[in-house]
Amino acid sequence: MGVKDNSPFPLALNVYLWYSEQKFTTWRMKVTSAEFVGSATSPRDFPRDRRPEIAFAGRSNVGKSSLLNRLLGRRKLARVSKTPGRTQTINFFRINGGAFYFVDLPGYGYAKVSERMRRSWAGMVEGYLRDREMLRAVVMIVDARHPPTPLDQELRAWLDAARIPHLAVLTKADKVSRGGRRRSREIAAAALKMRDPEQVLFFSAVTGEGERELWQHLAQYLQHSGTLAKGRNA
Ligand SMILES: Nc1nc2c(ncn2[C@@H]2O[C@H](COP(=O)(O)OP(=O)(O)O)[C@@H](O)[C@H]2O)c(=O)[nH]1
Ligand SMILES: [Mg+2]
Fold it and tell me: For residue 58, which atom of ligand 1 is closest to its CA?
């Protein structure tokens, strides 16, 4: 009810503490709920409640599941796999009671996949990216330790041509020295033809580095379509 007047600190100090909290703590979107709602291999199985979506793409084993778990503050929601290449479905996660969805696209570039499976992957994912009306942005995940692969480059060119908003995230950043960061970012930006190296973010599922910055970008993409804190029963 109104102003909290039982604080032991004078008003100015409270304002300062609030300010420093905003500024210095690891900020993350308040994720009140996150649930796996299903795997899809065709548009028939996609959610129909018309909520905005952010999709995550990257080669197998790049750290996509770990990134999702970190962002959502859930340790095992998206499975972290020791056997890459197995998930060949589009997985939907419903966040904050349906305020928005995270969409885990199947990892690409897994060597042991047959040509036929590769084509079916491309067909399914391209179909999703091309036709999904509620798609707001794609997060392209790349390994910070290695230059982007030809498939990463292909995806980036494709998203650019399709005018789908996207950004590149270099994950496993905890494995790159502070000194190696600049070079790693420049190499990725050049290979992906990102105009500005600042469009390339670092991330680590281990340390949480980059989490706040990535959420800020995602919030901007999602904001185009209304509130992020929709009630559970909506
Ligand atoms: N050091 C480090 N290892 C990571 C990070 N993210 C994922 N990994 C590891 O990379 C492997 C693949 O991760 P996973 O999330 O299953 O990748 P996915 O196949 O892209 O979903 C696992 O052994 C993870 O523990 C990270 O940020 N830092
Ligand atoms: Mg995975």
Answer: 20
